[in-house]
Amino acid sequence: MWNDREIVELLRTIKLQNRLVLRVLFQLGFNLEKMEREMALDFTALENEVARNTAVDESASLLLTKLTEEIKKLAEQVSDPAAQAKINEFAASLASRNDALSAAVEANTPAST
Fold first, then answer.
1. What is the pLDDT at residue 113?
2. Backbone phi, then psi, for 95, in 5-degree steps?
3. DSSP for residue 31
4. Nearest 10 degrees: Cα torsion 112, 51, 67, 107
5. Cα separations (Å) of 52 from 41, 59, 72, 107?
6. Which residue among 9, 52, 71, 113 has its CA within the 20 to 30 Å range from the CA of 36?
7. Rounded to two decimals, what is the model's pTM?
8. Three-class SS string for 47-59?
9. With contact defined as beta carbons under 8 Å apart, do 52 and 75 qualify?
């Protein structure tokens, strides 16, 4: 049988262990909350980077489209058929690169040139 002194000592030990467990649980909870906050921040950074990349991709595509249109207009103003053919060839090349860029962005792969 247990005497009073042993029971008091056992209760103290249990109380100390409970405090230790509570401390560890608190630290784990705090660390989990911190990790969740950091992951949320990283996710926000990722969203911002995706938005920036999307804007850059769209800008590049728009630039190529506008350049192609301007080059085609230039070709219409040239009277020399050989020069006009070269300009049209260049415009077609730009259009092709724009298509490759758009397809690569859509497929999430690097564009081939």
1. 53
2. -60, -40
3. H
4. 30
5. 16, 10, 30, 18
6. 52
7. 0.49
8. HHHHHHHHHHHHH
9. no
* d(C-alpha 96, C-alpha 104), whole Å: 12
Q: What is the pLDDT of residue 1?
A: 67
* Predicted local distance difference test score (pLDDT) of residue 109: 63
Nearest-angstrom CA–CA distance, 85 and 79: 11
Q: Which residue has the higher pLDDT, 46 or 77?
A: 77
Angstrom distance (rounded) from CA 94 to CA 85: 14
Q: CA 105 to CA 62: how far, in whole Å?
A: 13
Among 86, 91, 58, smallest CA distance to 73 is for: 91
By CB atoms closer than 10 A (0-12, 13-18, 19+), residue 88 is: middle
Q: Taking a C-beta distance cutoff of 8 angstroms, is the pair 68, 112 a contact?
A: no
Please report which confidence band the pLDDT of residue 73 belongs to, taking 50, 70 and 90 as the band edges: confident
- Report the distance separating Cα 54 and Cα 18, nearest Å: 53
